[in-house]
Amino acid sequence: xxxxxxxDVSVITERDTxxxxxxxxxxxxxxxxxxxxxxxxxxxxxxxxxxxxPLAQATVSQHLKVLKESGFVQGEVDGPRTCYCVNPETVxxxxxLVASLPA
Length: 103
Fold this sequence. Notes:
Elements: H1 14-25, H2 29-41, E1 43-45, H3 46-52, H4 57-70, E2 73-78, E3 81-86, H5 88-99
Antiparallel strand pairs: 1-3, 2-3
Helix pairs in contact: 2-4, 3-4
């Protein structure tokens, strides 16, 4: 059997799975808005995100959880709060995976 080529659509590659996981994390408009907000602010806490989005704190927290699990967002405990920021390596990886799709 020959090794699959990058364009062999009969094989699901690790890159395909990785892209699907990252795309799922951004599959909700609120999560895209959160990533965009964090990228523009650098870092912020959940309450600051709640102040700019028309969502309840619990909803924002749930979206942050999904983003954190995917690696798009990192959180650092700062006393009683968690300070969030975008993980630039994950964003670069996502951009690379999307760019590798055929036009």
